[in-house]
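Deliverable D2.4 — example input (structure tokens):
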């Protein structure tokens, strides 16, 4: 079974002759809902509102990171309701588990 390759970049379409055949184009969910508010501003706004508290372990941390609750690649959006603040350790573990789940899903297809 031939696997299709996905390319998100709209600019790449302009030079389609530069790419091999068999490419499937799709719109990225991130591009559809992208707004003008930067991740930095969202993070700062959430820190002002909630403090430097991890949404998972509920501990205060000086290494707080902005996280998509449901990742964009799994159908999540850039809506404020899909963001949370996680400490570095919880964010790293969540990302690892999400990647593991995606890899398992791919292998089962």
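Example output (designed residues):
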């Amino acid at each position: 079974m031939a696997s299709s390759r996905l390319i998100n970049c709209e600019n790449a379409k302009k030079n389609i002759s530069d790419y091999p055949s068999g490419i499937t184009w799709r719109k990225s969910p991130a591009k559809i809902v992208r707004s003008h508010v930067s991740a930095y501003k969202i993070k700062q706004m959430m820190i002002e509102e909630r403090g430097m508290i991890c949404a998972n372990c509920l501990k205060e941390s000086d290494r707080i990171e902005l996280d998509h609750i449901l990742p964009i690649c799994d159908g999540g959006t850039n809506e404020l309701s899909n963001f949370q603040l996680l400490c570095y350790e919880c964010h790293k573990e969540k990302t690892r588990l999400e990647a593991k789940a995606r890899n398992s899903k791919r292998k089962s297809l």
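The domain at 35-108 is CATH 3.40.1800 (His-Me finger endonuclease fold).
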